Amino acid sequence: MRTAIVGASGYTGAELVRIIARHPNLTISALAADRNAGREFHEVFPAYRNLDLPPLKKFQDLDMSAVDLAFCALPHGTSQEVVAELAKSVPVIDLSADFRLRDPGAYENWYGLPHSQIKLQQQAVYGLTEFYREQIAQTRLVACTGCNAAAGLYALIPLVAEGAIDLDRIVIDLKTGVSGAGRSPKETSLFAEVAEGFQAYSVAAHRHMAEFDQELARFAERKVHVTFVPHLLPQNRGILATIYVVGDSAAIHRTLSERYADEHFLTVLPLGSHPSTRHVRGSNFVHIGVVPDRRSGHAIIFSALDNLTKGSSGQAVQNANVMLGLSETAGLEFLPVVP
Amino acid sequence: MRTAIVGASGYTGAELVRIIARHPNLTISALAADRNAGREFHEVFPAYRNLDLPPLKKFQDLDMSAVDLAFCALPHGTSQEVVAELAKSVPVIDLSADFRLRDPGAYENWYGLPHSQIKLQQQAVYGLTEFYREQIAQTRLVACTGCNAAAGLYALIPLVAEGAIDLDRIVIDLKTGVSGAGRSPKETSLFAEVAEGFQAYSVAAHRHMAEFDQELARFAERKVHVTFVPHLLPQNRGILATIYVVGDSAAIHRTLSERYADEHFLTVLPLGSHPSTRHVRGSNFVHIGVVPDRRSGHAIIFSALDNLTKGSSGQAVQNANVMLGLSETAGLEFLPVVP
Amino acid sequence: MRTAIVGASGYTGAELVRIIARHPNLTISALAADRNAGREFHEVFPAYRNLDLPPLKKFQDLDMSAVDLAFCALPHGTSQEVVAELAKSVPVIDLSADFRLRDPGAYENWYGLPHSQIKLQQQAVYGLTEFYREQIAQTRLVACTGCNAAAGLYALIPLVAEGAIDLDRIVIDLKTGVSGAGRSPKETSLFAEVAEGFQAYSVAAHRHMAEFDQELARFAERKVHVTFVPHLLPQNRGILATIYVVGDSAAIHRTLSERYADEHFLTVLPLGSHPSTRHVRGSNFVHIGVVPDRRSGHAIIFSALDNLTKGSSGQAVQNANVMLGLSETAGLEFLPVVP
Amino acid sequence: MRTAIVGASGYTGAELVRIIARHPNLTISALAADRNAGREFHEVFPAYRNLDLPPLKKFQDLDMSAVDLAFCALPHGTSQEVVAELAKSVPVIDLSADFRLRDPGAYENWYGLPHSQIKLQQQAVYGLTEFYREQIAQTRLVACTGCNAAAGLYALIPLVAEGAIDLDRIVIDLKTGVSGAGRSPKETSLFAEVAEGFQAYSVAAHRHMAEFDQELARFAERKVHVTFVPHLLPQNRGILATIYVVGDSAAIHRTLSERYADEHFLTVLPLGSHPSTRHVRGSNFVHIGVVPDRRSGHAIIFSALDNLTKGSSGQAVQNANVMLGLSETAGLEFLPVVP
């Protein structure tokens, strides 16, 4: 199956290339990157010099007739028009935030601009594969989850669905690597502004909170308002969510273990163990741990994933596999890189 | 005033040297470091080659008659005997955990060994200067607070004392730099085990929790059991505590601002702002921020300090200043190093 | 083909597992790790929790009858006896320094202990695959090159063989990531001793210099004494060698380009370009660049590889492929991880 | 003495604030930062929240009548006009490259634009304090050296002046921390582009080479063309120059030791020792080491300094002290921060 990658010169674009170039069933037939149009991909990412890839083009110059599925890895806002255009000819996997929120009003609230593709929005399936597998198999537009949202939702959805925790007392303290901020030059992403420092950002106001609201409400069948504080880690990749809940730790652990027993990419560690981002770095795995608090009836849940892989591009390929009827794990078996 | 530093070859020992060597009223008259006895200090820390320092000796070879005050920067457990010996001749500032807990039973519970200096323990004053100033001025033994405990207590003590927050719903999610683990070789402190990775440690079981229990109970006048999860940051210095509380954010901010209005080293940021460890790195300052959660009646408090400075050696010198009747800020005005 | 990994709990052992677990023709049938015998591999490296691996055993408890080839990833000195024992039953790939030097006197000089397996030494083939392919295919013992030596030799061997540079004026300034120092706890490998600092080590005295002496002399057919200074980088993986030579840069570039035109893992960048360790991280590729100095007749050559992959475990698997008659690139096509 | 800092919102500007705020004889009377005019300095650098500083203004709004000396920390090119304006009223210390090269033609060659202040250029003194002390004391314009140039020149000037090394065989392999690239957002300075990677930049073409050419020729009394390759380190601060020379290591060591015997900020380590950037981090010290190569008649010289301190802002204050007739070390005695 031939794929196109639109927005190929960002980090999620490069991660798509890394994965698809070794995928047994997918090939890369077209690459778009507006600012870098006319260059070879390896001029933008010299790490992939050894690959035989099509040149970077402007989006409008892509030949979509030679493509079976498109990945769109553009920033939110700019994605809408491009996805709409792509969706006319091929199934689309969008890695941006533009089609994640089912409610256009919520989109406008959180992202500060009206949604221009409301009809298309209604067809989009939220890309958390393990919970939307059947719908993904039948749609032509998947909206991949936010990387932070994915880390939290994997830990929480089974628990809110089963009523295993107090829905009004959920605190998500999340830490994420810098690559999540993308490759565009910003003062806050400079090495000298990040290394040897640590702080929160978008405190209690991060846009991925809209995904928590939407998905937790859906599975809890009532409103759920988490407290959510993300922090920026001085490292390239990796998200660790530390989640404080009120509930029985053994029941929580059992609920998660049972729910994910057959999920290839989701590992629930033994009760009392907790994960590190280094244990999933560069892979499509999620490691979840549950540790009882010393106060009985309270528990701490940890969820670790790689923001560029399971948090975006690996997830995207997993969804593509489902959409295209391939083995869901195809091309995603590469292991974490340690150290 | 002449000081001795016992345990000079660890990171807190080196930080004491960095501070005292430029202190207007203190000098370094004796340095003890058992394993490195016989060497020059700059052989162990070449950064301090330009200083004129006494050679490293074994503790028992120190001439305490030429010393006015001693700092003891040994690991817990080994400190007790040494502090007892030092205390016979001079006032002592202990940077270990050995004399922090007033209840010897609590010490035995948390540290796994009986306390051998129970009488001396009863004279020890907890070294959180801003709350124990008067007692510090009158004692001969100060037990400096744990670095993690300091970060949390500065944010919490005024609030529990004033009843500004729900005492049963305090969650402390703390992140600390690697230097807090000390200089002894351990696999978990290796660069290749820490860099590009992030995880919690001692989840809900860290020994500094005993200090939270002790101090919060004292100021709240009832038991307070926080949930406390520390994490290891891939950076050398700095602690950020993110504290989730139930209470009115404006009242919380006002309480902290008023309490610390006259405290030189404690800065409460404007309501809604939050600190970074990089803003206090290498300095004796603490930055505290209060941000309202989107759920009214909930707030997030951030507390940032440098674990080696305000978290241990800077705090120790501040306490020494108080004990010796010097200006409390003497020698501690050096600024953060950015970047 | 079934393989055994002896010394599986170090970084090169883990990298062998990462590679072989996804190798199309090799399986892992036995794992030895003396200190960790009795544990599961994923207890030592939780990143590999999802693999189905044999338990860690003591070396002497391995059943070699079920093994077709053994990798030995022990420290130098301890390898000799183990390799001798392994070699009785299976072909062996040794990742240590013990069998790299053909001259036992050189071994004793550089490593400070006499060689105990002189006869076996004589059969060992130096594991720089691209230069010893035929001998590797026919031997039962391959001694993988040192990671630093590999970085330098790939740049230099074609040039000294062709007489393209002045043999008496070669300066190798090399920088290597921390994982090259291994996983055993040492003060100099601590995060707080490495991060935010940079320095040389083993200046003009590093043991890999013995490999430069041996191999450059062989290909130059005369003695060649390089100046060699390695430095320790604050990063996990990657080696960059910056090599200063006297010779015509265009001729140097042409010589290298021609020599490596058909070598899958060796890429010579366009004249004037130079590589980064990040472009080969986690992969088996080597990137080589040649840049003319402003002084005509002088050139700078850069060579970048991943010390754990092409510098040791990837190289080892490449050699195993050759020994076993498999495709040389089998299992080694995984791409660099960026960022 | 009252000072102004123009270009206060960059890293060298912040480092000037850090130093001057604690200087016994200097005060900060004016701060200019065009883009940030109207803000408080601590809004740009929250680390300096505790200082009482004037607000940031546009350059043209500064009241120079209340200033005794100005520091100009603007990028090259933009500095010329500003320095010319400042120089009308006060002595000026320029931290940019604009007045370093005595030959306007060389400036135009290396920086790609004609010099607009040729007359002022002729009065400028090169700011390498230890070699231009007397001229600095008498001029009204000091052009601080480039940070990379400083690292190399401290090691080389005494040797070329004394003829202790072969002038035609000097190789400078230099590694520098990221803060040297400044605070403006550039893709190449992003955390995710720098961390866990290492590469050279401006190979054999870096502009600081013009300073080597100028200064080495002056002290050698003939042309000297070094080979110079800088590399970018994944760390905030610090430069290490590794310099390969032909000459007798003992004579080299003796020459440097004698030359710097009375220089407060320059330390020559014992023969055979070599420095780390971590040993000078955050300080105004330079550590120089000489190690004999195994090839007799060849030596390796190491020079380590902090690019923001001795490499720019500390050097600038040292020059200000000289210009103003203060003690040369005033305000510069702060020690390295370790770790």
Q: What brief labels describe this structure?
A:
homotetramer, 31% helix, alpha/beta, Rossmann fold, 339 residues, seven-stranded mixed beta sheet, seven-stranded parallel beta sheet, globular, 2 domains, 14 strands, Dihydrodipicolinate Reductase, domain 2
Task: Explain what the structure shows.
Four copies of one chain form a homotetramer. By secondary structure, chain A is an alpha/beta fold. The first copy, chain A, has two domains: 2-123, 3-Layer(aba) Sandwich (Rossmann fold), CATH 3.40.50; 147-307, Dihydrodipicolinate Reductase, domain 2, CATH 3.30.360.10. Helix content of chain A is 31%, strand content 19%. The first copy, chain A, contains eleven helices and 14 strands. Chain A has helices spanning 11-20, 41-44, 79-87, 104-111, 118-123, 129-138, 147-162, 191-194, 209-220, 249-260, 309-323; strands at residues 2-6, 27-32, 56-57, 69-72, 92-94, 125-126, 141-143, 171-176, 199-200, 227-232, 239-246, 266-268, 286-292, 298-305. The first copy, chain A, is globular, with a radius of gyration of 19 Å. Chain A starts with a strand and ends in a 16-residue tail after the last helix. The model of chain A has no long low-confidence stretch (mean pLDDT 97). Chain B binds chain C through residues 11, 178-179, 181, 183-187, 189-196, 234-236, and chain C through 11, 178-179, 181, 183-187, 189-196, 234-236.
